[in-house]
Design brief:
Layout lengths: L17 H15 L7 H15 L5 H10 L4 H7 L5 H16 L6 H14 L4 H12 L5 H7 L31 H8 L9 H12 L12 H13 L5 H14 L6 H13 L4 E2 L3 E2 L10 H13 L20 H8 L6 H5 L13 H13 L11
Antiparallel strand pairs: 1-2
């Protein structure tokens, strides 16, 4: 039986203090440590996440040594969190899942233990079943499993007006739409907006990278294109490492815990390669979260999203409705904080910064500029 949720009189809604952070660290590490102990990536990732999300430093290695002398079980952990509501408990389980997702291969014992902790907390996410099943069978994750059990579990083709696709053009969430002149024209019209607006930023973002507008040949699925607006809003470049930051930001900004599956997808693609392909465009490319400084950047993206006002489903936002607003105004309205100094020092870059573009994108952007008879004015490789 899971530990019951608190009532309105006893629920604790304050941020965790140092003592509770220590409790959280013991619980998370107890759940995710494989036989032989935490991996190096797990240690740096957990340290960065605890620091960014709580403001307190945690030494995962020291916590693990403490647990060796005094184990800490799922039931005890859930009882210690008995005053925390479903949202808080769900976020803690998500932190566990992030730390298990970077294990390659994912041990069945770890997946089972995370599921046990989640059950005692009264948290159930179908994604846990996907991970546990894959770990038990020792196989790659399937993109269809992420779609059915995560953010897209209730995707409805009848409610996609925010994508502005023509009737009947979309057959699934990640379907490319390459023959919709009205949609392509809508995106192209963003170039008429003043510099500094969100829409003009997205227009320039596409042009400097040689991207095709949704609705035209070679374009990304319209749903995936939703995340491109976040690159401008939150100031992230377009190398793979920046894509991880963007999806960490998107997942944490949304109070619907199903949004976490988008981040799980990206980590599984770009760290372990446990997912071969996803989102109708991305293909596995391993080892990017392991790059120097990336755990700091990852944690900071979570922090920035957590501090935004309200719950924000950026993948379901009608961005064209706010395209004419200055980016600075939108950031103020969201109370979106800037990047931490540590994240910037660790290499976090914006879409216009040196290093904020991949070599392939730079080449495509330059070729497009040459074909159109204009000077290339986008970012450099750094």
């Amino acid at each position: 039986m899971p530990v019951p949720l608190p009532d309105a009189a006893s629920v604790l809604l304050l941020p965790p203090d140092a003592a509770e952070v220590a409790t959280l660290a013991r619980g998370v590490i107890s759940a995710v440590a494989p036989e032989g102990g935490l991996t190096g990536l797990q240690q740096t990732l957990l340290a960065a996440m605890f620091r960014s999300l709580t403001g307190f430093d945690v030494d995962p290695a020291a916590v693990q040594a403490e647990l060796a002398a005094r184990p800490y079980g799922a039931r005890d952990f859930a009882q210690d969190l008995h005053r925390r509501d479903a949202a808080f408990r769900g976020r803690i389980v998500q932190n566990m899942v992030i730390a298990e997702l970077v294990l390659d291969p994912l041990p069945a014992a770890v997946a089972g233990r995370v599921a046990e902790f989640a059950a005692e907390l009264g948290v159930h996410d179908d994604l846990e079943d996907v991970l546990a099943g894959a770990a038990e069978r020792g196989r790659r994750l399937a993109a269809i499993d992420f779609d059915r059990n995560g953010y897209l579990h209730d995707f409805d083709l009848g409610h996609v007006g925010h994508l502005h696709v023509g009737d009947g053009a979309l057959h699934g969430p990640w379907t490319p739409v390459e023959d919709d002149p009205a949609l392509a024209a809508r995106w192209a019209s963003l170039g008429e907006l003043p510099p500094g607006t969100l829409g003009r930023g997205v227009f320039d973002f596409y042009r400097t990278r040689g991207f095709s507008f949704p609705g035209s040949p070679g374009s990304a699925p319209p749903l995936l294109a939703q995340h491109d607006w976040v690159h401008i809003l939150a100031d992230y470049g377009t190398r793979v490492e920046s894509e991880i930051e963007v999806f960490a930001f998107i997942a944490r900004a949304n109070d619907d815990l199903h949004a976490f599956s988008l981040l799980a997808m990206v980590v599984s693609l770009f760290e372990t390669g446990a997912l071969a392909a996803g989102a109708g465009l991305f293909e596995a490319d391993r080892g990017h979260l392991s790059q120097p400084g990336m755990t700091t950047r990852f944690g900071d993206a979570l922090r920035r999203a957590a501090l935004c006002t309200g719950s924000n489903d950026f993948m379901a936002t009608d961005w064209f409705a706010v395209a004419d607003k200055p980016v600075a105004v939108l950031r103020r309205e969201l109370m979106l904080p800037g990047k931490s100094d540590e994240a910037v020092a660790a290499g976090s870059v914006g879409p216009w910064d040196a290093g904020g573009i991949s070599p392939f994108q730079l080449d495509a952007g330059r070729k497009l500029a040459e074909a159109e008879g204009r000077e290339y004015t986008g970012p450099s490789l750094g």
